[in-house]
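> tool_call: predict_assembly(chains=two)
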Amino acid sequence: MARPIILGVVGDSAAGKTTLTRGLVRVLGDHNVTHVCTDDYHRYDRRQRAERQITPLHPDCNYMDIMAQHLGHMRAGEAFLKPVYQHTDGTFGPLVRIEPTEYAVVEGLLGYYSESLRQNYDVRVYLAPPEELRRKWKVQRDCSRRGYTTDQVLAELDKREPDSEAFIRPQKDSADMVVSFLPSSDDQEHLDVEMILRPSLRHPDLTPLEQAGENSGIRFSRDGDDIHLFVSGQLDPQVAHAMEESIWENLHFASHLRTERLGEFTIGTDLHRSESLALVQLLLLYHLFTAKASVALGGAGTRSA
Amino acid sequence: MARPIILGVVGDSAAGKTTLTRGLVRVLGDHNVTHVCTDDYHRYDRRQRAERQITPLHPDCNYMDIMAQHLGHMRAGEAFLKPVYQHTDGTFGPLVRIEPTEYAVVEGLLGYYSESLRQNYDVRVYLAPPEELRRKWKVQRDCSRRGYTTDQVLAELDKREPDSEAFIRPQKDSADMVVSFLPSSDDQEHLDVEMILRPSLRHPDLTPLEQAGENSGIRFSRDGDDIHLFVSGQLDPQVAHAMEESIWENLHFASHLRTERLGEFTIGTDLHRSESLALVQLLLLYHLFTAKASVALGGAGTRSA
């Protein structure tokens, strides 16, 4: 088998990593995707962290070297034994054997912290919602699914802020795509999205968007070699469809994988759909598929940096 | 290993099949390409054909069913034993074992004759030089390399003409690309090329050429869903380079395979280069690489018909 194509999804706690990747895994097929969370490489369990007054965001609280070693195994298509951190009670469970498959999604807090980590990814995404939105998401999730009170979550966020600033947010600079979902209204199906697309990957031709007027809901600009793209959550579905169409056009060799299921997410048990989420996921698929094509043709992938 | 990607190159005797494929094989790498000539499937040797008054162009003179069976093995990535017809003395040599590799080039006279043959190819090219040019090429080749006199070759061409008309030329209709090199001068490095690009394959975006003026050396037109493309052999090298650039742009996932060696051919032992040959070969590479990408992604290839 050719080596797996590896997507990194990094961002602070509750930045939306799982929502983004769950939809991609669904599209690529569960059995084709190895899903790894780098937070499993914590050095200390919850009790030990409390004793040591260290947050899980600090590199010293994680086996950073083993994380890189295991990502190297993944990239080489070799199996490895992964530790398991249990968010439910903050302890470690039994190791699991990971067998690389066609694709891997590696998500977590510190995935781009060092060059020996970064070099393993074919595509690097960083999720950077506004802090206010992230705090809201973290409260929602940790209270409903991890058994905390709102005050506990907010206190924890404050305690973590220095490490977020020192270790998490600087990783944004190592991403090929920085993605910020923005609240345009209270309606989670219609979040705006703002993206920075860096030249370390060859993005599909988006120049038609450059001509889109101010009222189109799309803003396209350049900052040196970076592309800044804003897409309104209230975008006309026809315009959204045309954008998606032009990206699939560049992916015609993968047309058998075309799907209408991008952008789906759940709130509680209800299935929702977000156009901006669909667009981000489609851009990621574009890069995963072209990287896979490159590797199949004997190349090293599609990274230019 | 994924199944091989199969290019068909069909055309009458001395239509330029070997010149076209030799350059592609050089670029793809000898060890990556299985080269099969369907003329090896002749039912009768030269003496038997003379006795029976049958030309090698007639389907009855070939094991058409075995040809299709072996192409099916090739497509499935299975080895097979191929007969060998020896042009030097018109007899059969010992069988050879063929092991499919990443790519296959299947050239010959009758490769698109039946649907059970046609269905095996990822890309189907038909070479259709003007008859006058083909006769000249056949005389040059058969006299210099196969030991005939000019009169013998011309007599043979006349004898074969009814079968060429009945069995060879109609195969043009089954090709994805019909390629005609045309003599603009006596200079073989600067042949014009005329192509019909059919919608059974998704060709790279050539619409920029639609706007090229009459004096550019490029003529682009549409006939229903077909594209007709004429490129002058005297094309400005800068324009030729821009055309090639735009096709490579669509192949960025194969950029590690980019090469300057397209268009090379030999006259005697001298190496020459033709821009029009390079362009045709690049279009073929485009289709081979996108088909390979599709198969690597679990697809069936890039044919739409």
